[in-house]
Write a structure and sequence with these properties.
alpha+beta, single chain, 48% helix, globular, five-stranded antiparallel beta sheet, three-stranded antiparallel beta sheet, 205 residues
């Protein structure tokens, strides 16, 4: 009797499941799209995500190792750990500060190599063996634009504000500390983030 894979997450774009000890992300067909177009979109997005993750790993960022890349599937190492979203608030201050500094280091490595994650939330970060791994590059892209990097970081600020409000200032300060230390264009990015915040306030977001 064939054993069904253990589904970990079922999203709008893909299902993520465990198979033979590996993590598989499979982009699912969309019935509302023309089949040829659907095939092309899913194939392009799968290829793009694999490329982003491999480039990130090459830049020294911690991401799951992509071991197999098919048309619509990525087979990756399965990281044993905890979603940062679930544990950040309850951490001892010293450990939380260390984790946030590591996040800043990782983002600096990505941006220095022209990589935009696209969905920097603590739901997309795994704490494994003391290291912070970034997962789900499905909304990512390659860009060296200051605006894109600022939006990338601002998304993290908004995520911290939403889910980790009590430790927002502490965490955000630690993230920026190492980001600014490790990335040569960080000052320009920080200035752009302040402009983004003002735009949001002006619009009433």
């Amino acid at each position: 009797m064939k054993k069904h894979p253990e589904i970990i997450q079922r999203g709008a774009e893909a299902i993520i499941y465990l198979e033979k000890g590996k993590l598989v992300k499979e982009r699912i067909a969309k019935g509302y799209r023309i089949p040829e177009l659907d095939h092309k979109i899913r194939k392009q997005r799968t290829k793009s995500e694999a490329k982003l993750m491999k480039r990130s790993e090459g830049a020294g960022a911690f991401v799951p190792n992509v071991q197999v890349e098919d048309d619509f599937r990525l087979v990756m190492e399965y990281l044993r750990g905890e979603k940062l979203k679930d544990v950040l608030n309850s951490m001892p201050t010293k450990k939380r500060n260390s984790v946030c500094e590591k996040i800043g280091e990782m983002i600096a490595k990505l941006h220095a190599n022209g990589i935009i994650h696209g969905d920097l939330t603590t739901s997309n970060m795994i704490l494994s063996n003391g290291d912070v791994f970034f997962i789900d590059f499905g909304l990512g892209k390659f860009s060296e634009k200051i605006e894109d990097q600022a939006v990338d970081l601002f998304l993290l600020y908004e995520a911290l504000k939403s889910t980790h409000f009590k430790v927002l200032e502490e965490c955000w300060g630690r993230v920026l500390k190492t980001y600014e230390r490790d990335y040569s264009r960080a000052e320009d990015v920080s200035k752009r983030i302040e402009k983004i915040k003002k735009r949001r306030r002006y619009r009433g977001d």
